[in-house]
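Database export, one record per block. Field names are fixed; values are copied verbatim from the stored entry.
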Amino acid sequence: MTDDKRAELLGLLEGYRIRKNAKIISIEHFKCGKYVWVGEGSVLDASGRLEIGDHTNICLYCLIWTYTNV
């Protein structure tokens, strides 16, 4: 499966690409701009809300965690 197809299945914007084995936790709290690339093996935890701007690259095996006590 291609990076673009993987992003499309997740309902992400045009130009968004996500490599295999990358995960988005709580995708309902995740917002991202156009032309975002997420590297292989990365984990984005949006459970505390996460927003990523246009033209952002996230490296391979990067971990981004959010937190909320609400």
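Remark 1: The chain has a mean pLDDT of 89.
Remark 2: Residues 3-64 form one domain.
End of record.
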